Amino acid sequence: MGDTEFCVHVKWSPEEAKLLRELVDEYIDNGQDRIPWTELTIRLNSVAATYEDRAQRTVRSVRNRGLRMRNGINKQKNPNAKIQRCSKCGQPRAGHVCGSVETVA
Predict the structure, then answer these.
(1) Which residues pair with 44 in a beta bridge?
(2) What's phi and psi for 55, nearest 5 deg?
(3) Where are the beta strands (DSSP E) in the chain?
(4) How far apart are CA 57 and CA 41, in angstroms?
(5) pLDDT of 60 over the 80 cut
(6) CA distance 5 to 104
């Protein structure tokens, strides 16, 4: 509604997801209560610019993805939680990007 720009959805690559997780962990490990999502988005986009088919991520998309990944990790730590797994790689689904290669016949 207030946004005048529209962008095409580009899936998160395994490299982007790994980098995002490392950046979020860096802030958490430093004991920060709040994650500066704008700063994190700038850092992520500067690295992602080296890939030619990667779109620039918005602060909202980085925040949503980062929180989803963090919530998935926290859920995995709960021994009573029911965890859905990826049908391709077997990893817990919440917040992960499947790195398995699909073969097209």
Answers:
(1) none
(2) -80, 155
(3) none
(4) 7
(5) yes
(6) 34
What are the start-end ranges of the H helices in the chain? 14-29, 37-48, 59-77
The whole-model pTM stands at 0.68
Phi, psi of 24 (to 5 degrees): -65, -45
Rg value, the chain, Cα: 15
Question: Is the Cβ–Cβ distance between 94 and 84 less than 8 Å?
Answer: yes
Q: What span, in angstroms and rounded, lies between the C-alpha atoms of 70 and 91?
A: 15
Bridge partners, residue 85, by sequence: 92
Name the token pair of 32. 């920060």
Tens-digit pLDDT profile for residues 65-88: 988 888 777 777 777 777 778 888
pLDDT of amino acid 69: 83
What is the rounded distance in angstroms from the CA atom of residue 15 to the CA atom of residue 44?
Answer: 11
